[in-house]
Amino acid sequence: MMIRSLWSGATGMKAMQFYIDNIAHDLTNVNTNGYKKKIVNFQDLMYQTSRASGLQGGTDGMVNLPVGVQVGLGVKVAGTTPVMTVGAVVETGNWFDMMIEEPQSNQIRNFFRLDMGDGNFAYTRDGNFRLDNEGRLMSVDGFLLSPQPGNVSNEATAVQITPEGRIFQRLPGEEEFAEVGQINLFAFMNPAGLEPIGNNRWVQSESSGEAQQGEPGQDQFGTIRSQVIEQSNVDAISEMVNMIAARRAYEFNSKSITTSDEMLQTVNGLKR
User: What pLDDT is recorded for position 139?
Assistant: First the structure.
């Protein structure tokens, strides 16, 4: 029945629209610090079976049919999977800009933690930190790094952050650096299970598992590279190619609907 092709084409158009929406969102965040692109996963819909395979009865007795007769009913979006890989690195020269370097591969597991001020915490890969008027490290939108590593003097003439997360400062008139704090990281068994909440932040979920706190460089924890920022892992050229392919697929599904409609008009126009 041609009505099936109409609905199948409609599901294809709907799925491709979602795909393009996802690509557009990734492209808008191509320069967002710590952003992770997403892959859209598709699944075929249920099938209608006109004839099953296997042993079948007929006028000539039992017949073993090697294949059946089935037709699918379209496609659906099964889910979106974040690509948790390290993004591009940009040098800033700012003392308090940091990125996390993973210990073994390009796959990320480690995050900075932010105190949201209401008893809850959020996690981020955006290492663009600044000092408040009390010398505390905080995100550019005003959330404190947690646990707070210590106060850095606003009068410091130089600040160093080691790969192990130790913070040193040198005050006016002093020759030596003095340690003022320690930055901690938080690792997840399944970082792809974190729930994004916008503003370069994620929150813990049942899928991500509990956050494990530790010092940089120990066990599974990464190290800190200072005066650089991790940017998005979106490849604009690849996403543009994907958008062109999605647009073509959208057009093909639209064509299947118009073709089916023309066939139905032909059937409706038949006369005895």
Answer: 95
CA atoms within 13 A on the CB side of 117: 6
Q: What is the pLDDT of residue 54?
A: 73
CA distance 37 to 88: 13
233-271 b/e with 16+ CB inside 10 Å = b?
Answer: bbeeeebeebbeebeebbeebeebbeebeeeeeeeeeee
- CA 260/CA 226 separation, integer angstroms: 60
DSSP β-bridge partners for residue 182 = 166
Q: What is the value of pTM for the model shown?
A: 0.86
Tokens, residue 128: 């663009």
Beta-carbon contacts of 233 under 8 Å, excluding residues fewer than 6 positions away, are 35, 36, 37, 83, 85, 86, 87, 88
C-beta separation of 45 from 1 below 8 A: no
Express each pLDDT in 77-104 by its tens digit: 999 999 999 999 999 999 999 999 998 7
Q: Are 238 and 215 in contact (CB under 8 A)?
A: no
**Torsion, Cα of 230, 235, 239, 242 (10° steps):** -130
Distance CA 84, CA 58 (A): 56
Q: What is the pLDDT of residues 15-46, one digit of tens each?
A: 999 999 999 999 999 999 999 999 999 999 98
- Over residues 124-151, mean pLDDT: 94
pLDDT at 2: 61
